[in-house]
Write a structure and sequence with these properties.
Low-confidence stretches: 24-31
Helix content: 25-40%
Distance between the termini: 64 Å
CATH topology of the largest domain: Gamma-B Crystallin, domain 1
Strand content: 25-35%
Number of helices: 1
Structural class: alpha+beta
Length: 126
Amino acid sequence: MPSPSRTSTAITAATALAALTAALLTSAAAAPANARERAAAPEGKIVVFVTEGAQVSWAGTELEEYPASADCRSLPPGAHVISNHSDARLLFFTDPYCAFPVPPPFNFISPGHGAHVAPTGSFRIG
């Protein structure tokens, strides 16, 4: 039969190893959630100019404004020009569901820039 001091040391070492393993597993699982919480949501807005033929008004063409978001947004009918007034890059897609990205180098617009667009596409921040 082992002496009490050896048994006590083995139990203490096993307990410490189990506690260390649990702490490592917990911190590894929590790290992505904490990183997501620290990542700030994009700020600003996306502005879309719709061609004059789509909206007739003596005051000019009304601009479509969208909040900066990672959610997919279809471009409105008659969309002609888009402007990125957010703090993140704007990604473009050829379809209205953000499934097929526009090929480079036309696949994104940096903050503070704009581009001509086709009304059949979509966009999101990312």
